[in-house]
Every structure is written in C-alpha cells, then in structure tokens.
Amino acid sequence: MFVDLVVDLFFAIDIILTFFVAYLDKSTYLLVDDHKKIAMRYVTHMMFPMDVASTLPFQFIYRLFTGKFHHGQIFGFLNLLRLWRLRRVSELFSRLEKDTRFSYFWTRYIKLICVTLFAVHSAGCFYYWIATHHRHMDDTWIGSIIQDFENRSIWLGYTYSLYWSIVTLTTVGYGDLHAVNPGEKVFSIFYMLFNIGLTSYLIGNMTNLIVHSAVRTFIMRDSINEILRYASKNRLPEGLKQQMLSHMQLKFKTAELQQEEVLEDLPKAIRSSIAQHLFRKTVEKTYLFKGISQDLSSQLVTDLKAEYFPPKVEVILQNEIPTDFYIIVSGSMEVLTHQNGMEHLLTSLGPMDMFGEMGVLFNIPQPFTVRSKKLSQVVRISHHHFKELVEPLINHDGKTIMSNFIQYLKNLKKEVQDEIAFLTEHVCDLNIEQVTSFDDFENQETSNYDQEHNQATAINAPSRSFPMRVIIHGHRPQEKKTDTGKVVHLPESLPELLVLAVVMVDGTQVEDLDALRDNDHLFIF
User: Is the pLDDT of residue 520 over 90?
Assistant: First the structure.
C-alpha cells in the first residue's frame, strides 16, 4: 500500500500541474496560456474525472473512514481504473519518437518491448484470476498441476501464469499448461486471436525499422552497380571510373550536408539567412570581392550552391566552356596545365581561394584544369547570375572587382602568368575608369584572346578603324541583269543596313556585319 500511495501522489501532482500547462488550440494552431481557459478546458473534458478516479486510493480511504482493511473484489475492479494512466505512457513515447535527441530506432524498439510485456502480463494475471475464482480449484489449468495453489505464494502463481502467456503468445504451445474448464478455453480462444494481431503489429514494426535503417545502403549499392555497368558497357578508363565511384560514395556520405536537400522546403528568407551565416565571411575574404558593397555581397551569398568533391577529381577541365566559378570553403585544389600530353602542376589553392573566374569574367575557355587534392567543399556561382548582379553596379562594385582581379594577376607566380600571357599583357594596362559596362571588360579580353588564338568568339567585336567597301545591286540575285552595281561604304550598324533589306549573292540574308568582307556583292529589294 505504501508503494501505491507514493505512485498515487505523483499522479495527484500531475493533475495539479495540468492546470498550468498550455495547450494547442486546434482551430487557430496557437498555444493558449490563459490559466482560466486551461482550467475550464481540463475540468470540462473527460480527462479530468478519469484522472481523479484513477488516482484516488479507494482502499486507503475506506480504511481511513471505517478502520477496517477490506479485500473485496470491488476494490480490485476500482484498481482497474489505473489502466487509464497508460494514456500518459503512450503520450510519453509519442513525444520521444518526435524528439531528435533520442534515437528513433531505440525508442520504437523499447516501446514494442513494453507493449509485449504489458500484453503478456495482463493476459497472465487475468488467466490466474479465472483460476482463483473457479468453483473447483482442481478443475483449473493450474490446480490440475499444483495442489492447493491458492494458498501458495502469489509469485508461484505469477510465474506459472507468465510462462503460459509467453508460450501462447509465441505459438510454441508445449501443452504442459492448458485450459481445462470452459471459461479458460473461451479466454484462450480470444487471447490467441489477439495474439495474431499483436504478432503482426510487432513483426511489421520491426521490419519497418530494419528496412528504414538500410534503405539508404540499398540505394547507394544500386547506384554504384549502375555506374559499374555503365563504365563497363562504354569501356571507360579505370581512372575515370574510380572518379565516378568516389563521387557517388561521397554524395551518400555527405547527403545530410547538401543544402539543396536540407533547405528545399524552407521559405526563401530562411534559406537566405542560413546561406549568409554559412558563406558570407568566406565570400568577403576572397580576393575578387574585397571592398564590394554589402548589398552585392548579400545578393551573391543568397543563391550560392555548395558542393563536395572527393580527392583526385577534376572540377574544371582546361579549354572547357565557362559556366561557373568556385570558392573553396574547405579542402584544397591543385591547378594544372597540359602541354604536349604532359601534365604540369602550377600552384595549389586553399580555403578562401577562387578558381574558374578567369573564364567567367572574360568569357573565354578555361585556361587551367583544377583538381581536388583532398575532400573539399566549394560554393558555386554561375556566370549568368554573377553578370546579372554586377552589371547594375558597374560604376562602383564592378570596377572594384576589376581592380581586385588586375592586382591578383600582377601577384601571380611567373609560371602562371606565362600560361595566361594574353591576359596579363592587356588587362594590366586596362584603364578601369573607361569601362562603362561589364561587357566592355569582357569583350576587351575576349578580343585579345581571339587575336592570340585566331578564334572569332568575341561577344561584341571592336569598331572598325576604316570603312569597308561593298557592291550593291538594285534587284534580287535570281534576276539576271547586266548592271555592274555601285560601290558604297558599309554603314556602321546593322539596323542601318537592314533598312535596305540586304541579301547576299547566294540568297543568304545578312544578320551580322562581321560576316561581310571587302567587295562582297549585296542585293537590295
């Protein structure tokens, strides 16, 4: 009774504290912390009378008022009200399963064990109660084995009851303990039917826990097998196949760190705040963005994309088309160049260093190959996004970025400068104050690169130093006429020429003045 009173005291304290616990209003989804509303809700709810009924020590109260100790069945049935407290246990496990501080697997596993033990205990106790209340003690499942069992230790009866319950639950059924009278047989029937559902519940939950813990492993193995099949079918080199495998393994190892997956469902404001916290200082410490405004810095960081690269993986290939440039957050990279089939190491890069910016700034093929030396995290900035942000701020931040880059070129190692001579020779002499748009800076170096490599890839070609002469005709090229045409100077812009609706001798319409050459025949119609 002393233990029962202590437990009842804890539940009585719980009832008192419930009057001071806020609740969630299901209509507004707001926490209600008004004590009057909390008390009114609790008292008018079914929980309050049931909590009181399951907490009151009826047997102690009866003894207190009558002075007698009663062992009647009425108090036994009243004690069954304590089963209402199991609701608290269920709520406890529900909270623990949602609490990330605790392992979901072990929380769920302990809950399943508790459910099993409670079912076994309850069935054993009820089965023993049936035997003790039968008219003929010898005509019971336990009386047929143990004579005068009702006068023996209660622990002996509990041991036999628990043994029968577990054997029945596990469907072993040794047969040494079995139902004798009709009441026991009816109870055994319902208990075995209950066990079918309980066993299905336990097996289903355990299977789900095991599969859930291994599902990522299955996905990773399937992905690796697909890579191996692809590499074998296309006869890829061993080194390239190893890079593919390393990248795939790293993808699964760092899955919880991938911002795109973690932040996918969050509002944009929260994603921006997280990006500012993670990468703002890194961006501002890079040489290219020193001294830029806070506005541009915030805009750059907002849409950064973080990536991880395992060791010995090419991030940028020499002469590939520039689409992005990168900032190293952690790890290290090595800058390489290929000449006559030989690979030469130029320099190494570490945290807060950049690579790929030369190709992006000047819209030229990447001059170097960049390879990871160890596990590295980088953030990626796209060419298009960078240009959109800098173009409106060309008079301040744009010129600051250009000045930073020119100073960076001057401080490069001599062997690196020799590899990009077409940049260092012209950029260092560029007058930043004369640049009025980002395209001017980009086109200046694109033109120099084209002259160096005989490639016509400039975005906007520089203006001509002398006018070009072309021959125009006043009819369609299909019409055979004897006129020799008229020599004219080519206009300065295509719109001025298109007013005359010009086509070439072969019928091709003129769309770019740079495509025309001296003495070309143009037909006006």
Answer: no
